[in-house]
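Let's practice the habit of predicting before peeking. Look at the sequence and jot down your guess about where helices and strands might fall. Then scroll down.
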Amino acid sequence: MTLRRVVRYTLLVLLTAVFVVPVVWMVLTSLKTYPDAQRTPPAWLPDPVSGYGYHRLFEPGSQNPVLRWFVNSMLAAVLHAALVLVTASTAAYALARMRFRGRGLMFAVVVATLFVPPATLIIPNFLVVDTLGWLDTLLVIVVPGAASAFGVFFLRQFFLSLPRELEEAAVLDGAAPWTVFTRIVLPLSRPALATLTVLSFLSNWNDFLWPIFTLFSADRLTLPAGLGLLQGAYNTDFPVVMAGAVLASVPALVLFVLAQRYVIEGVSRSGLKG
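Done guessing? Here is the structure:
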């Protein structure tokens, strides 16, 4: 084994450890008792292994409806991802294949919005949803951000990599533009669509700041925003907090494992042609 390969694998192991070690610590801490989690110096392995954190998280009569937060987050993330797919795919196909005046300028404006910090849009978006009467509802989590500039850019790059001959053959057979888009382009774009679904789902699932500003009722919070309530002002029950973090991590990990093959293929093909 050459020195270069040794260095490469060493760096890969270290990089893997950076991501894996915090996850392992989170899971192990969720299995500790409260006194064990407060031990100084902290111990890696729980002694004894306990379901205290999960019991406290789901105990009946709790003031923190964790399961309701989980359902709220799941509904919001799924609906948001579906809405992003609809808006981004139609806009991206128009920018990739249709010829109209100002197409280049429009695409440049879409790309330019990617450089705007999301935090600067909180106040304008808040005023808009307040005017629409969406505050403290599911719509306030689902709709804002559904017109994804990144999704348009990503899918446009993928659509450009598809051979035009397939679409031209369909047009010669009498297919309308909408038929070409839904029957030919979208089926061929499954890797890109799966990738965008995962990214949109995770973006909405992990969002913390926007729900804090727009959701006020305890039973309407999403999981990331609700987990912040588990931390006290003067004391933190770490097994309970880590149990909530494990719960929040499971859907994201399952989704990524199921869509991993499509994500890799979608990312690799989306940059072939610009």
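How did you do? Residues 227 and 244 are 7 Å apart (CA to CA).
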